[in-house]
Amino acid sequence: MTAVLRAQALGKKYGRRWALRECTIDIPAGHIVGLVGPNGAGKSTLLKLACGQLEPTAGGIAVLGGRPGGTPAQLAKVGFVAQDTPVYASLTVAEHLRLGARLNPRWDDGMARERIARLGLVPAHRAGKLSGGQRAQLALTLGLAKRPDLLILDEPAAALDPLARHEFLQHLREAASEHKLSVVLSSHLVSDLEQVCDYLVVLVDSRVQIAGRTDHLLTTHHRLTGPRCDPGRLPADQYVVSARHTDRQSTFVVRAGAPTHDPAWTVSRVSLEDLVLAYMDQHTAEHRRVAQEVRG
């Protein structure tokens, strides 16, 4: 399977602080990939390295088989919409399109103008007068009209109200399907990822905790609820992702090819949010355990 983004032991350091360290990741082509994790996990740094805005401090990264930003041809293959959906407040919508045409050799002016008309954006209006949702749609239009092979979006809808966010994600899904784009979308809102993503990567402290097609991940993870039990007593083929206990009851999220058939356990499906939180909780629990050992 072709990879659109491949990193090996990738690291980025700002002064004495590592923003990303020992990150190894392999993202396949042909998907809308959701990249999710807590604040400080390294998501934005990874995406900026992928589009050539930053140079690695350690390790290596390849995007579409080449070095990010290495050549004009490589730059033309990747579209990027940053977290604050950057547009120029003093420029009109039409001026943004003309600027895009001058900067991007693969620019599709017909598609850009058709999309602006369909969205109801007035070409003469300045970007600074647009609503947050309209600015986000303009930024997405600029990214799409570049005709990239890979579109990278870093929290593009985080500041939008629920309706504007829904419309933005719906248009993204339609555009990715129509233009056969590979997309990597970073978000801390799992509900957004559920709307559009068919592949998930959970990144915590620079490390990939789980990656795969969302349908496969959801069918191989289960919630077990039953009498209080030590995780080590579960079958060997069930990897415990997270565990919660009360005085009498245990609840586990496990990864396994098939759910347990022990009548002592109630087995239920997990949502994408359940799955993401379980892997983030697993990491938090491990940190607590290490801290306790250090103090002990």
TrEMBL record:
Keywords carried by this UniProt record: ATP-binding, Nucleotide-binding, Transport
PANTHER family attached to this UniProt entry: ABC TRANSPORTER ATP-BINDING PROTEIN ALBC-RELATED
Annotated signal sequence range: none
InterPro entries membership: AAA+_ATPase, ABC_transporter-like_ATP-bd, ABC_Transporter_VariousFunc, P-loop_NTPase
The protein, known as: ATP-binding cassette domain-containing protein
SUPFAM superfamilies tied to this protein: P-loop containing nucleoside triphosphate hydrolases (SSF52540)
GO MF, any single term: ATP hydrolysis activity
Limits of the ABC transporter domain: 5-230
UniProt-listed CDD domains: ABC_DR_subfamily_A
